[in-house]
Amino acid sequence: MLAVAAATGWALHRTGPSASGPEAAATVLQTRTLGDVTVLTDAEGHTLYWFGLDSARKSACQAGCARTWPPVTGPASWGAGVTGTVGAIVRPDGTLQATYDGHPLYTATTDTGPGQAMGNDMWSHGGEWHEVIVPARTG
């Protein structure tokens, strides 16, 4: 089901723990507290970003942009602390890119290690980039 959802751009809602099987090879999304916010990270702790020019079904970051802001490979799975909707889109080259709450996800080459967010609020490649903030769980 994940492959079908990813190929069509559908989003998946977390209803329980990640399943075993094909999802085991997925990019694992996690959270990390930076300053006073909780951000989405990859499994190595690198901050993930969204691009203001993207839509829920299409990345506006191609070619040189994608070298500076590498797309996060889809599909993705949920790690501890991740809430929201995880899915994937198909990039023009046919690869899958992970999405979170309707935003295609990227890392930043300006971040040289885990726990950095040098790309936050940066203007680059014609638009603004933002760290992905994960809302606190309630209840």
Largest sheet: 4 strands, antiparallel
Strand order, main sheet: write it out: 1-6-7-8
Number of strands: 10
Q: Which parts are unreliable, with pLDDT below 50 for 5 consecutive residues or more?
A: 1-24
The domain count comes to 1
Mean pLDDT: 85
Question: How is the secondary structure organized here?
Answer:
Elements (H helix, E strand, L loop, with lengths): L1 H7 L2 E3 L13 E8 L2 E5 L7 E3 L11 H6 L7 E3 L6 E6 L5 E5 L2 E2 L17 E3 L2 E5 L8
Parallel strand pairs: 2-5
Antiparallel strand pairs: 1-6, 2-3, 4-10, 6-7, 7-8, 9-10
Describe what this molecule looks like in 3D.
This protein is mainly beta and 139 residues long. The chain has one domain (2-11, 26-131). 9% of the residues lie in helices and 31% in strands. The protein is built from two helices and ten strands, in the order αββββαββββββ. The chain has helices spanning 2-8, 63-68, and strands at 11-13, 27-34, 37-41, 49-51, 76-78, 85-90, 96-100, 103-104, 122-124, 127-131. The strands form three sheets. It has a four-stranded antiparallel beta sheet with strand order 1-6-7-8. Strand 7 and strand 8 (103-104) form a beta hairpin. It starts with a helix and ends in an 8-residue tail after the last strand. The relative contact order is 0.25.
